[in-house]
């Protein structure tokens, strides 16, 4: 019944829809947020004739490439990307929602909202990707950071910083998300301890 409603142009509250059980033309549902602050599923681009919830505040089509990649599961992500760094970029961006002391991403302060260091990324890659050597993980980390910079439409910045380890000093790349950078589809809480959230795609 819900599939038929979607095909008639309905917008249904996400809490009431088990997206994995919906089969519609194109097998794709789009998650949107409306003026009432609630999230809905619809067929991509379909307008709701009943006007429930007000106008669409933002939709998946508005998101950056890296945001869209982060919404896919591992199997779909591998199928839609042609390069390993792009696939990893989507996974790494998805990790940002868990920014904290023991995660891949770190919360910044002042003008920096969050940041990611190349050494932490290389270690994360070694844990997530079987059979990857330490040297290759460092190369993948560099290429993944480059991919993230491009897929974010340059909203992510790259800086070089000095780091000391075991008495040795070396330069390390840090990927930064500045506090004043706007990301499509994200609502940032006034409480800096809360992570921003992004709309996602289901059934793609």
Helix content: 25-40%
Beginning-to-end CA distance, first to last residue:
20 Å
Portion of residues in beta strands equals 15-25%
The sequence of SSEs as H and E is: HEEEEHHHEEHHEEE
- Tally of helical segments: 6
Q: Mind telling me the C-alpha Rg?
A: 19 Å
Give start-end ranges of low-pLDDT stretches: 187-204
The average pLDDT score comes to 80
Biggest sheet layout? 5 strands, antiparallel
Shape: elongated
- Specify the structural class: alpha+beta
The total beta strand count reads 9
Primary descriptors:
9 strands; disordered C terminus; 204 residues; 6 helices; alpha+beta; elongated; single chain; 4-stranded antiparallel sheet; 5-stranded antiparallel sheet; 22% strand
Commentary on this structure:
The chain is an alpha+beta fold and 204 residues long. It has helices spanning 2-7, 65-70, 74-80, 84-94, 118-128, 134-151; strands at 12-13, 29-34, 39-42, 56-58, 106-107, 112-117, 157-165, 168-178, 201-202. The strands form two sheets. Strands 1, 2, 3, 4 and 9 form a five-stranded antiparallel sheet that branches. Strands 5-6-8-7 form a four-stranded antiparallel sheet. Helix 3 packs antiparallel against helix 4, helix 4 (84-94) crosses helix 6 and helix 5 crosses helix 6. Residues 187-204 have low confidence and may be disordered.
């Amino acid at each position: 019944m819900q599939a038929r409603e979607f095909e008639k142009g309905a917008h249904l509250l996400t809490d009431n829809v088990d997206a994995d059980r919906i089969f519609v033309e194109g097998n794709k549902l789009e998650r949107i947020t409306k003026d009432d602050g609630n999230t809905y599923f619809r067929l991509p681009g379909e307008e709701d004739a009943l006007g429930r919830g007000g106008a669409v505040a933002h939709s998946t089509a508005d998101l950056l490439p890296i945001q869209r990649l982060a919404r896919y599961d591992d199997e779909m992500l591998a199928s839609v990307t042609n390069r390993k760094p792009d696939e990893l970029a989507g996974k790494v961006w998805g990790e940002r929602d868990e920014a904290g002391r023991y995660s891949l991403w770190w919360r910044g302060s002042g003008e920096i909202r969050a940041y990611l260091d190349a050494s932490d990324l290389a270690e994360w890659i070694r844990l997530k990707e079987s059979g990857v050597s330490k040297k290759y993980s460092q190369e993948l980390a560099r290429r993944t950071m480059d991919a993230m910079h491009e897929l974010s439409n340059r909203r992510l910045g790259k800086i070089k910083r000095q780091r000391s380890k075991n008495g040795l000093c070396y330069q390390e790349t840090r990927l930064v998300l500045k506090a004043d950078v706007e990301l499509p589809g994200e609502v940032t809480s006034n409480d800096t301890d809360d992570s921003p959230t992004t709309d996602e795609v289901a059934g793609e």
